[in-house]
Amino acid sequence: MPHVEEQLRQLCDGTEHRFAEFATAGSTVPRTGAGVYTIWDAAGVLVYVGIAGRNPSGSGLASRLRSHASGRRSGDQFCVYVADHYVMPDLRREEIEAIRDARLSMDQLIREHIHATFTYRFVQSDSYAEAMAVENAVKGGALGQAPRLNPYR
Known about the structure:
Elements: H1 2-13, E1 17-18, H2 22-25, E2 35-40, E3 46-52, H3 61-70, H4 77-87, H5 93-100, H6 106-117, E4 119-124, H7 128-139
Antiparallel strand pairs: 1-4, 2-3, 2-4
Helix pairs in contact: 1-7, 4-6
């Protein structure tokens, strides 16, 4: 499928967008339709791959990426992964106590980490089935590495 191959190329080498700039750059992200996105860290490691558009007229890539950019763990598996793998391991005792006492927001720490560390690339797909094929290929290592947080298991 050459269309899938082109999407894979774009997800690896296409335009990178910073989560810190999602409020302004997010306007270029499709609001409906099917698509796939990859999330990368500052060292160029593939961190996560996601899909949107199960319902063609429902929310698309913009909604998924906006949710990730928010840092809110509720209903967002990527933010949970970021909390578990990136934020919590570096918390100091004082920060843990401040989170416990509601003087510090864990979601805010996650949002700050996402904005400071991660970029994303996205592509639109002709159908949800095509998007799934692209996502599965990325999870399987088609970009030269499997995503750190959600590889094919």
